[in-house]
Write a structure and sequence with these properties.
The protein is mainly alpha-helical and 137 residues long. It contains four helices and two strands.
């Protein structure tokens, strides 16, 4: 049986599939409990996590087995394929981005700097005398 060039990922995926399936089935069918507290949900969720990780291993195994066609096997006169044209979705996203950036209202300018200590003294001197509790008689 040929298992491809990435046997490690294949074995990892098969092991994670088996362990994840066992955990999901034990957690959902057997209703395990310890000291009166059920922990079947933990087993089901752990099994689901292992199954997800096995999907990543399957993906890496598949990607590791992809091969390009060598130039010697191409028919005479065959060229490498031209770059694919941009998909209509990418063109639409590009046009929408350009449109939004052209019609966006201008950003507000920088706020004025906070008054320094000298300006605060000047502002305090200009206040009315009644502002600090002084009474005019």
């Amino acid at each position: 049986m040929a298992c491809g060039r990435c046997a490690v990922f294949l074995l990892g995926a098969l092991a994670l599939d088996a362990a994840g399936l066992v955990l999901v089935l034990v957690g959902s069918v057997a209703q395990p409990a310890r000291a009166g507290r059920p922990y079947g949900d933990c087993l089901v969720l752990s099994g689901a996590l292992l199954l997800f990780l096995s999907l990543l291993c399957w993906l890496l195994w598949y990607a590791g087995n992809l091969r390009g066609v060598p130039a010697s096997e191409l028919p005479p006169g065959a060229r490498s394929p031209a770059p694919a044209p941009r998909s209509s979705l990418l063109r639409l996203a590009s046009k929408l981005s350009e449109h939004l950036s052209q019609h966006r209202p201008p950003l507000p300018g920088p706020s004025p700097p906070a008054p320094g200590p000298l300006e605060l003294r000047h502002l305090c001197a200009m206040e009315s005398p009644g502002a600090h509790g002084d009474r005019l008689v």
